[in-house]
Amino acid sequence: MKENKIRGKPRILFHIFVILQIRVRCREIYLYIEYYFKGICWKVINLIEHWLMEAVKGIGRFFLNPLVYWSILLVIFSGYKRIKEERLDFGSKVFDVFSEWKGTHWIAIISGIIVSVITLGTGMVLNYETIIILSIITILLSITISFTMLSPIYTIGITYLLFLFLPYVWKDTELFGISFTLETNFTVLSILLGLFLVVEAVLVKSMKRNRTYPSISLSRRGIWVGQHRLKRMAVIPFFMLIPTGNIVPIAPYWPVVTFGDESFGIVLIPFIIGFDYIAKGHMPKQAAGKLSKYIMLLGLAIIAIAVGGIFIHWLSFVALIVAILGKEYIHYRYRYGDKVRLPYFHPENDGLKIVSIIPGTPADRSGLLVGEIIAKVNGVRVNNVHQFYLALQNSGAYFKLDVLDDNKEIRFVQGAYYEGEHHELGLLFSEKPHKKKMKKVN
Q1: Percent of the chain clearing pLDDT 90 (strictly above)
Q2: What is the pLDDT of residues 357-404, one digit of tens each?
Q3: Exposure of 401 by Cβ count < 10 A (0-12 exposed, 13-18 middle, 19+ buried)?
Q4: What's the pLDDT tens digit per position in 189-215?
Q5: 320 or 46: whose pLDDT is higher?
Q6: How many Cα atoms are found within 13 Å in the side-chain-facing hemisphere of 111?
Q7: Is the peptide bond before 152 cis (omega within 30 degrees of 0)?
Q8: Residue 196 contacts by C-beta under 8 Å, 6 or more apart in sequence?
Q9: 1 CB contacts (<8 Å, ≥6 apart)?
Q10: Nearest-angstrom CA–CA distance, 216 and 432
Q11: Is 57 exposed, middle or buried, given 0-12, 13-18 or 19+ CB atoms closer than 10 A?
Q12: pLDDT tens for residues 394-437?
């Protein structure tokens, strides 16, 4: 028994030693893991700090860009110009001065977030020279207070071509202190071109039926007919990397498209998108749907080709050429198709076709739609504006309308209008302009 006890002591000591060794090892592992994760946490915190600081700087740079202030002036001047034309045609203002901008804010914010995720997530870099020239080109293309040339096809396209060819024809590679070097990131420009074409398609699609801008023009037969402008402008704020700052590459494959720089900053860029299409032979909402579909398909095709430019550089130029030719073809087909059609807002035998509705008027509150036909007013058939006005005068403070919808099915609309409201319920029709002016025949 004593021998067994003596032999058992070394075993107990051995087990105690093993347990102590395990505890020491566990302690070492714990300290190592703690040190390792603390290092990772500090790196992550440091990375987030740098990104946040650069983001704050980028937002500050946003307000240094002249496009921010030019966009405000542009929408104001454009609105006043449109209101002047509305008064000539209809004798009153139809939409307020900021209408071209209204309804675009959520689209602009969501689009800006999506584009920013793509540009920052993949690591797309643009230098300051490119951003400055893009801003100058945008201002020059809209100096006539027109939105026609504010498609990314023209703003980004001209910027691309300027940086591509000017170094070869201009001996001095600096102009007004701006360097035109071959280091311009053409692949990023072509990808942005495709992305903003998709945004343009969404903006065109978002045009509401009663929120397009009416006018009066002469048809080829010398008849006064209505037409609409699909017109809108939006400022898309999006983040982009620039080749100076405190952000370092976070992975061997990021940034994807760069100049080979070792540190980066962030800038918030205001990008203006605008368009202005005339719908004379089309229902405006139908025209918007048709245009947006083809612009969307073109934008997606350009993105696909431009992404290939990351691996094969000349594909970015192919994307630009396809974009220009594709957009011009869409414009040609639309204008030609609209021209050969009979005017959509021509005089009807069934009644008066609504050319437009003034917001906030009894007609607007009653749910009437542009393009519907007023067949009767208080049971009296009407075929011209004079008959419509007389029938309303005899109705007192209440009105009842027989309306033909798009399917020529009749529905009844009734309501009341009060003192001081539009004498024709806020309805606008195809008639001789309120004030004499020259109208060219399309």
Answers
A1: 44
A2: 999 888 888 889 999 999 998 888 988 888 888 888 776 678 889 999
A3: buried
A4: 999 999 999 999 999 999 999 999 999
A5: 320
A6: 25
A7: no
A8: 115, 152, 156, 236, 271, 273, 299
A9: none
A10: 8
A11: middle
A12: 766 788 899 998 888 899 988 877 655 555 688 898 888 877 55
CB atoms within 10 A of CB 420: 5
Burial of 270 (0-12, 13-18, 19+ CB in 10 A): buried
> What is the C-alpha to C-alpha distance for residues 157 and 38, in angstroms, rounded to an integer?
48
Whole-model pTM: value is 0.85
For residue 375, CA distances in Å to 214, 243, 256, 378, 415 come to: 21, 65, 62, 10, 16
Nearest Cα neighbor of 276 from 89, 105, 151 is 151
3-state helix/strand/coil string of 161-223: HHHHHHHHHCCCCEECCEECCCCCCHHHHHHHHHHHHHHHHHHHHCCCCCCCEEEEEECCCCC
